[in-house]
Automatic annotation (TrEMBL):
It comes from Salmonella enterica subsp. enterica serovar Vitkin. This is DUF1391 domain-containing protein.
């Protein structure tokens, strides 16, 4: 699990994707 901060007060959690 990787949490990517988009900077727009949003975050995307990647599970299968690198």
């Amino acid at each position: 699990m990787k949490t990517i901060d988009l900077g727009n007060n949003e975050s995307v959690v990647y599970g299968v994707f690198p």
